[in-house]
From TrEMBL, chain A:
Function: Allows the formation of correctly charged Gln-tRNA(Gln) through the transamidation of misacylated Glu-tRNA(Gln) in organisms which lack glutaminyl-tRNA synthetase. The reaction takes place in the presence of glutamine and ATP through an activated gamma-phospho-Glu-tRNA(Gln).
EC number from the UniProt entry: 6.3.5.7
Keyword Glycosyltransferase belongs to the record: no
Protein name per the record: Glutamyl-tRNA(Gln) amidotransferase subunit A
UniProt entry keywords in alphabetical sequence: ATP-binding, Ligase, Nucleotide-binding, Protein biosynthesis
NCBIfam families xrefs: gatA
TrEMBL record, chain B:
InterPro entries membership: Asn/Gln-tRNA_amidoTrfase_suB/E (IPR017959), Asn/Gln-tRNA_Trfase_suB/E_cat (IPR006075), Asn/Gln_amidotransferase (IPR018027), Asn/Gln_tRNA_amidoTrase-B-like (IPR003789), GatB (IPR004413), GatB_C_1 (IPR042114), GatB_Yqey_C_2 (IPR023168), Gln-tRNA_amidoTrfase_suB_CS (IPR017958)
Keyword set includes Nucleotide-binding: yes
Matching NCBIfam families: gatB, PRK05477.1-2, PRK05477.1-4, PRK05477.1-5
Entry keyword set: ATP-binding, Ligase, Nucleotide-binding, Protein biosynthesis
Organism of derivation: Brevirhabdus pacifica
Gene3D superfamilies for the chain: 1.10.10.410, GatB domain, N-terminal subdomain
One GO BP: translation
Matching HAMAP family: GatB
GO molecular function, one term: glutaminyl-tRNA synthase (glutamine-hydrolyzing) activity
Function: Allows the formation of correctly charged Asn-tRNA(Asn) or Gln-tRNA(Gln) through the transamidation of misacylated Asp-tRNA(Asn) or Glu-tRNA(Gln) in organisms which lack either or both of asparaginyl-tRNA or glutaminyl-tRNA synthetases. The reaction takes place in the presence of glutamine and ATP through an activated phospho-Asp-tRNA(Asn) or phospho-Glu-tRNA(Gln).
Name this protein carries in UniProt: Aspartyl/glutamyl-tRNA(Asn/Gln) amidotransferase subunit B
Pfam families: GatB_N (PF02934), GatB_Yqey (PF02637)
Highest classification ranks of the organism: Bacteria, Pseudomonadati, Pseudomonadota, Alphaproteobacteria, Rhodobacterales
Length: 501, 503
């Protein structure tokens, strides 16, 4: 076996597989890490990693090997992963893919990345994303877009990996790392997971600490794992989750052993299919994928039930009021005063000019649009018409889900996205709302604070991966992962993108 | 509680060129919560630290940093609410007030607009014995302070000190129940007194730990009563807000100036523009800071980083049970328990320490005598040296000891003053000093009689004159006192001298 082949094989391991091999001594973390680093070196065309940290990676790999040798190794020990650029990592550039955070080196480590570090996992570097996690195609990044390792059959058009966690999705799908952190405000974990044929879990709001994660929309943001399999998601999620007194919205609940809950047994579980998610103009192949997913779960012993979530159609507009409103306030701190980018000022410029020029230069167009929308919906005279109404809609959407769960539904099955990955640049000229439609199946979950998981279950006519979403009861990610595990087992999706980069 | 009844003071009337005007005033007092740590971070609140040394990551609004409420500050706000006899809201919430300024790193201040922690309460503002204004409190909310911008250190740059950023404030909002400049200042004095009694704010105005925004409007006599009946603000004039006042004197001057400015505009046929103004103490005038049109749109919305604040009634009850005696109660008690005048009770309760001191001196003694000594001798002496009660070299126990010596007849009032001076300057146990220095009053009639006999024997001419004119007996008393070094009991000397001269 050539060194290259070995690298590829090691990097292609799942977290579970690597963990078992590490514990058995069949491979070392240093070997795994080097394998991933060499894959990353050859994958610049994917634009997935925006800051590489090989020294940190190898140092942590050696430390992990020591822990493994001592038999004191949690599941994530020695596992090479990537960290989305939205997470602040001590001494390592953390820019949220924005020019305005140019040169910013945090003096602190986000709780989630610290937990992963303390569990022994190996940070390979920081991953590309949409600027401030605002976008569904990774095209708003200051680093330039990440690229989907998948291509349409017989067509070398560069496709989006989705967004905002596009770099994370691309890196995991292309075997540059074994898993990656993502964040999900309106679908930013699940949509890119679906576009790249991987698994992405958005946990219940409050399950993973937001401390040290650059805020987009605080009441919606939630970190989660992006992995090659459902089992990997369970393992990695277990290391990320947990109460954090530094985040007042973090839940003080015990973290169960999620992996142990993956029995694949879903007999008697009730899976709801919400009729409102069957939208006009939905591509036939999405509809077919959805029906097939329902069949698979039925075959696995679940009861499939049609349900109604009547306020679904108001979710997207409510989301695009609430998220920009919070963002407009959260992003006010980027003012050029204390850190990051500051515009060069002209003679006579005062503080107002400093703000205006700094923010005009530092924020890209999509971020500027959302800051302006958010400022508008919160302004005097419009607050009730927009923000307050959106909050009421949000409460109704949550109630829809609550009622479904109270009626005995254990999980809800929907498509993850309305289409497969689209071409980079294809949406550039489109109305921004067309891009926002990517989130139509995912935003409800954020508005209601629920856990949701995207699982690849098939491909479209052109060979691109498609995924289904399962939505679970709050705090019952274990049950949700188990349902996803059953779906994954039944779907048997094992395709990998052919290496072209 | 012992309650005293009061009459409301008459509103201040300003005579305009055309007719009379009255003032309507409401205050928003910002009181820094006495806490070692900030409202949402563990950074220190110590005054006078090196610039930017008391700054946590969250205070500097570093990316991804989150606020966590300081429970101690919440307790202080609840204490304050209870001290103002106010409604405590078991559920309150934080909102963001958004605006850009370099000393506001987050770009928003976390405050409580929609659901404050404290609702309606009241403050009784004593104006004169038997006269007090009951000022209603609308609400108290908690909020973060901003940092400090320094514009005069460099010709081209401004500097920012974030030490104050995020320090906990209580904003105490009154209803427009205050009717004159003196009342406004007296309200702040009373509020500060209560806060100090509660220990929730040190009330230091020089350091900016207590500041007031003053809302002033003017109306014609009779209009205010219409407002009172209906609570309809349209009966009142348009108000202007004078920002950031940090002295009682300036508050009065600014209100007076502002009222006259508004009256001049109205009598000239103009109308008052609602705006924010600043008081310039050097020029003695207020000037426009920003008009209503230029006013910030703060885009308030619920802070998504903080869950609604829920507290339990049991916790509130515990705080209530441990409240100290407050000025109004203490004042009433001093009047009824010790028989001091209302005026003296005011002086004695002006601050916590004075009240404690007096209580200790007066307990089990003659209250009026105690009040007299504390106010006239002690406070007078302290004032001479610009000292406060906390610096008093005479402890309450020592002063009590002096009063006991007077009560027992061991020393006269005059000797007591000498003794007080010795204790004040040299310290020591009063009884011991009296003993050691032979200051004890002579009440032994035999000794006094001997002294009187001696004077009479030595001054036959004077005796003859005194027999003609009994008023001259005083000369003999004086001689006896002189001969005994002032220690003879004056009453006994008088009696004996009178008897001997008559005999």
């Amino acid at each position: 076996m050539s060194a290259d082949t070995k690298s590829s094989d090691l990097a292609a391991l799942t977290i579970a597989g690597a963990r078992d091999a590490l514990r058995k001594g069949e491979v070392t973390s240093v070997e795994l890490t080097q394998a991933c680093l060499s894959r990353i070196e050859g994958a610049d065309a994917l634009g997935a990693f925006v800051h590489k940290t090989p020294e940190i990676a190898l140092e942590r790999a050696r430390a992990a090997d020591d822990r493994l040798a001592k038999g004191d190794a949690p599941a994530m020990c020695g596992i090479p992963i990537g960290i989305k650029d939205l997470f602040c990592t001590e001494g390592v550039p953390s820019q949220a893919a924005s020019r305005i955070l140019e040169g910013f080196l945090p003096q602190y480590e986000s709780t989630v990345s610290a937990k992963l570090r303390d569990a022994g996992s190996v940070m390979l570097g920081k991953l590309n994303m949409d600027e401030f996690a605002m976008g569904s195609s990774n095209e708003t990044s200051v680093y330039g877009n990440a690229v989907n390792p998948w291509r349409r059959d017989g067509d070398d058009t560069a496709l989006t990996p989705g967004g905002s966690s596009g770099g994370s999705a691309s890196a995991v799908a292309a075997d540059l790392c074994l898993g990656a952190t993502g964040t999900d405000t309106g679908g930013s974990i699940r949509q890119p997971a679906a576009f790249t044929g991987i698994t992405g879990l958005k946990p219940t709001y409050g399950r993973c600490s937001r401390w040290g994660v650059v805020a987009f929309a605080s009441s919606l943001d939630q970190a989660g794992p992006m992995t090659k399999t459902v089992r990997d998601a369970a393992i990695m999620f277990g290391a990320m989750a947990g109460h954090d007194p530094k985040d007042s919205t973090s839940a003080d609940l015990a973290v169960p052993d999620f992996e142990a809950m993956l029995t694949g047994d879903i007999k008697g579980k009730v899976i709801g299919l919400p009729r409102e998610y069957r939208m006009d103009g939905m591509p036939a192949e999405i509809e077919k994928l959805w029906a097939e997913g329902a069949d698979m779960l039925r075959d696995a012993g679940a009861e499939i039930r049609d349900i109604s979530l009547p306020h679904t159609k108001y979710a997207l507009p409510a989301y695009y009021v609430i998220a920009p409103a919070e963002a407009s306030s959260n992003l006010a701190r980027y003012d050029g005063v204390r850190y990051g980018h500051r515009a060069t000022l002209a003679q006579g410029d005062g503080i107002t000019e400093m703000y205006e020029k700094t923010r005009a230069e530092g924020f890209g167009p999509e971020v500027q649009r959302r800051v302006m929308v958010g400022t508008y919906v919160l302004s005097a005279g419009f607050y009730d018409a927009y923000y307050n109404r959106a909050r009421k809609v949000r409460a109704l959407i949550k109630r829809d889900f609550d009622q479904a769960f109270e009626a005995g539904v254990d999980a809800i099955l929907t498509p993850t996205t309305p289409s497969a990955a689209f071409g980079l640049g294809e949406m550039t000229e489109a109305d921004p709302v067309a891009m926002y439609l990517n989130d139509v199946f995912t935003v409800t979950v954020n508005l209601a604070g629920l856990p949701g998981i995207a699982v690849p279950t098939g491909t479209d006519a052109k060979g691109l991966p498609l995924g289904l979403q399962l939505i679970g009861r709050p705090w019952e990610e274990g049950e949700l992962l188990n349902a996803a595990y059953a779906l994954e087992s039944a779907a048997g999706f094992v395709s990998k993108p052919a290496k072209w980069w | 509680m012992l309650d005293l009844s009061y009459e409301s003071p008459a509103p201040k009337v300003i005579a305009g060129a055309k007719h009379d005007w009255e003032l309507v005033i409401g205050l928003e007092v910002h009181a820094q919560i006495a806490s070692k740590a900030k409202l949402f971070s563990g950074a220190s609140t110590q005054f006078g630290a090196e610039p930017n040394s008391n700054v946590a990551f969250v205070d500097a609004a570093m990316p991804g940093m989150l606020p966590v409420i300081n429970e101690f500050c919440v307790e202080q706000a609840v204490r304050t609410g209870l001290g103002l006899k106010a409604q405590i809201n078991l559920r309150s919430a934080f909102d963001r007030k958004n605006y850009f300024y370099p000393d506001l790193p987050q770009g928003y201040q976390i405050s409580q607009l929609y659901h404050p922690i404290v609702g309606e309460g009241e403050v009784l503002v004593n104006m004169a014995p038997g006269i007090a204004r009951r000022v209603r409190i609308e609400r108290i909310h908690m909020e973060q302070d901003a940092g400090k911008s320094i514009h005069d250190m460099d010709p081209t740059m401004s500097f920012v000190d974030l030490n104050r950023t995020g320090v906990a404030l209580m904003e105490i909002v009154s209803r427009p129940d205050i009717r004159g400049p003196e009342e406004a200042a007296a309200y702040v004095v009373k509020l500060r007194q209560i806060l100090r009694y509660l220990g929730t704010c040190d009330g230091n105005m020089q350091n900016g730990n207590l500041r007031a925004d003053v809302n002033v409007s003017v109306c014609r006599p009779g209009d205010y009563e219409k407002y009172q009946e209906t609570q309809d603000f349209s009966h009142l004039g348009t108000r202007c807000e004078i920002k950031n006042m940090n002295s009682m004197r300036f508050i009065q001057q600014a209100i007076d100036y502002e009222a006259r400015r508004q009256i001049a505009i109205l009598e000239d046929g103009g109308s008052v523009v609602q705006e924010t103004r600043l008081y310039d103490p050097d020029k003695g005038e207020t000037r426009s800071m920003r008009s209503k049109e230029e006013a910030h749109d703060y885009r308030y919305f619920p802070c998504p980083d903080l869950l609604p604040l829920e507290i339990e009634q049991g916790w509130v009850d515990d705080i209530q049970a441990n409240l100290p005696e407050l000025p109004d109660e203490k004042r009433a008690r001093f009047v009824t328990e010790y028989g001091v005048t209302e005026y003296d009770a005011d002086v004695l309760t002006a601050d916590v320490e004075s009240g404690h001191y007096f209580d200790e001196v007066a307990k089990g003694r003659d209250g009026k005598l105690a009040a007299n000594w504390v106010i006239n001798e002690l406070f007078g002496r302290l004032k001479k040296e610009d000292h406060g009660i906390a610096d008093s070299p005479v402890s309450a126990a020592q002063l009590g000891g002096i009063l006991d010596l007077i009560a027992k007849g061991d020393i006269s009032g005059k000797i007591a003053k000498d003794l007080f001076e010795i204790v004040y300057t040299e310290g020591g146990d009063p009884a011991q000093i009296v003993e050691d220095r032979g200051m004890r009053q002579v009440t032994d009639t035999g000794a006094i009689e001997a002294a009187v006999d001696k004077i009479i024997a030595e001054n036959p001419a004077q005796v003859e004159k005194a027999k003609q004119n009994p008023k001259l007996a005083g000369w003999f008393v004086g001689q006896v006192m002189k001969a005994t070094g002032g220690k003879a009991n004056p009453k006994a000397v008088n009696e004996i001298v009178a008897a001997k001269l008559a005999g």
